[in-house]
Amino acid sequence: MQKYANKQELMDAIKKTAKFFVNEFKEIKEVDKDKYIDGVECTPSQMIAYQLGWMNLILSWDKDELDGKEVITPTAQYKWNKLGQLYESFYKQYEAYSLEQLMELFSNRVEQLILWVDTFSAEELFSQDVRKWASSTPSRWPIWKWVHINTVAPFQSFRTKIRKWKKLNALDKSNKIRKFEDKDLEPVMEIWLNTNMQAHDFIPKEYWLSNFNFVKEILPSAEIYVYEIDGDIKGFVGIESGYIAGIFVSNETQSKGIGKELLHTIKGIYSELSLAVYKKNARAVNFYQREQFVVKQERTDESTGEVEYFMVWKK
Asked: Is pTM beyond 0.70 here?
């Protein structure tokens, strides 16, 4: 493990490696922030969320101890053998933020952490048993070591990860979002039917089947963007004058960030978006709320008799 001659050397290393790390994200497009690439286990947004999560924990451990609270590392909810779940909580906490917002949060938190490090004397920073939370390991780590393994070390290792992600993403021509073409109608309608029946099991399947031909006829007149993987349509979003008619992702590719990428594409086009989503479709409601949509009205859909939310997002 890297060692430091003094406090200033540690603070300089944090500042330097943080700058190199965050600068790697400047050329990444917003639409790609949640994109998974084979060979890299994290998306760009998750890489920053990981850093924020650990820096937040270190600062909270110290604050809680000084406030006389019991500190359980890493958290009371997640033990050391549950780190995967802890990381998922980091990702969930920051998933609604734009890449620009994440970069700003990261830079601000780094500055805050450096100021915190500077409050310690050299003896306090490099000696054992100065803080109970720092001494919670069998080897009773000094504070500097906790700081290093949760700042300098991951800033360096994740810089390598994001550079690999960018290299592979530049080579990846198999996934793309593009405008709808006439040849897409059949696969798009298949996704429309299957996902509606799956997501809305509280509505009889006959409703969707009876509306199939009508939707097929009017769908090409809407503004539609499709998500294509190796030439196959895996999802699409339909929008008209800022109103989202729906975001649909094929059953086999759900929970892979496709819906989020489609939504972020149209967020980059419109300054305000609205939509209607059934109240019983909790998964969709939660998704849009995470994406900063706000419920403006609760009403009944006359065609199904189901309660729906009218939701709005503004840039």
From this structure: no
